[in-house]
Amino acid sequence: MGAIKTCLKAASWFPVIFISLIVGWSYYAYVVELCFYTLAKTPYNNIGQVVVYLLFYHLLLFMFVWAYAKTIFTTGGYVPDEFYLSKADLEKLEAEDRTDRKDEILKQIAHNLPVYTRTLGGGMRYCSICKAVKPDRCHHCSVCERCILKMDHHCPWVNNCVGFTNYKYFVLFLFYALVYCLYVAATVLPYFIKFWSGDLGDESSKFHILFLFFAAAMFAVSVMALLGMHTHLVLSNRSTLESFRAPVFRHGPDKEGFSRGSFCNNFREIFGEEKKYWPLPIFTSKGDGIRYPIQARDEDSDRLLDEPMDDEAACVESEMTSGEESRGPGGTVNYAIENETK
Question: What is the spatial distance between Cα 263 and Cα 267, in angstroms, rounded to a whole number?
C-alpha cells in the first residue's frame, strides 16, 4: 500500500508538469520563433514592435507564473488545534452508540467554538477521519486527507486544495492565464493568417506559430469559462461546494448565508480593502478562515447551542434588535458577528 500511495502522489504532479511544459514551449514559440525568427526577419525589420511584444509578454508571463506558483505551494488552510477532540472526548464520543447522544456530546465539546453551521439533519458538523469539529465552511478533502478551511475544491491542475488561504491566488491564476492566452492569440493572429496565405518563409516557424495560436485560443476559451464561474462565486461570497449544496443554519439551508450584502463587500472579503494589492498574489483576504460574518433571518441568531446567553451576549443582541441592524432583500437582517461565542 505504501508503494501504491507513493506512486499516486507522484502521478498527481503530472497535470502541473503538463502545464509547465506547455508554458515552456509557448515561451520558445513566442520569443524565439515569432519574435526573433519571424518578426526580426520581416522586410521592415520592426525592432520596436519586437520590443513591445516582448515587454508585455514577459510582464504577463511573470504575473501568471507568480500566481500559479502561489496557488500550488500555499496550503488551503488547516483546522486549528482547538477544533480537534481530546483523547478523553474522543473516547467518550466513540463509546456512545446513539446518534442523538453523540450529537449532544459534540455540542458540549463545541460549547466555546465559533461554529454556526450544521448538518442537513441538524447535528454538529464533525469529521470522523480527522476527529475534529468542522469550522464553518470547512470540508474534508479525500485527496489531501485532511480538513481544509473554506474549502472550494481540490484542483488537479495545481495539485492542491483551493481554500481560504490560496483562493485569491487561484482566481488571479485564472485571470492572468486568460489574459496571457488572449495576448498571445491576438499578437500571433496576423502571422497565423500569413501562414494560410503562404507569406511565412521559414517552415519550422510556420508550424510553431500555427500551434501556438490554436493552443492559446483553446486554453483561453476553457479558462474563460472557469474564471466566469469563479467571478460569480467571489461576488456572491460562495465556494464551489456551497454553490452545489447551500450551508445549513438553524433556519435551514441558505445559499446567501455568508453574503456580505453587496458585490463590492463580497469582493473585498477575498481581495481585501487595499486596491493596490488586488492584482498581486499576496494574501489580503479578510478574517482567519474560522469566523465569518453571517446573515441571520429575523430573530433567529443561528446559534447551534440552545443555551442561555450570558450578560454580554444578551447586551449585543439587544443592541442588534434595537435598530442597529440593516435589512436586506426578503427581510434578511445582516449582522457582522465578531465574537460569536464566549
Answer: 6
Contact 286, 268 (CB under 8 A): yes
Catalytic entry in 155, 161, 181, 264 = 155
Taking the C-alpha atoms of residue 227 and residue 328, their distance in angstroms, rounded to an integer, is 28
Separation of alpha carbons 25 and 225, rounded Å: 24
Q: Which one is predicted more confidently, 38 or 89?
A: 89
In angstroms, the CA 301 to CA 295 distance is 9
CA 11 to chain centre: 23
Q: Is 155 annotated in the active site?
A: yes
Answer whether 216's CB lies under 8 Å from 181's CB: yes
Higher pLDDT pick, 310 / 54: 54
**Sequence-distant contacts of 102-111: CB under 8 A, at least 24 apart:** 106/133, 107/304, 107/305, 109/85, 109/133, 110/304, 110/305, 111/305, 111/307, 111/341
Written as one letter, the residue type at 77 is: G
Strand runs labelled E in 142-187:
146-148, 153-155, 160-162
Half-sphere exposure at residue 247, Cβ-oriented, CA atoms within 13 angstroms: 29
Q: What is the pTM of this model?
A: 0.83
Distance CA 234, CA 238 (A): 6
Largest CA distance in the chain: 84
Question: Is the pLDDT score of 200 beyond 90?
Answer: no
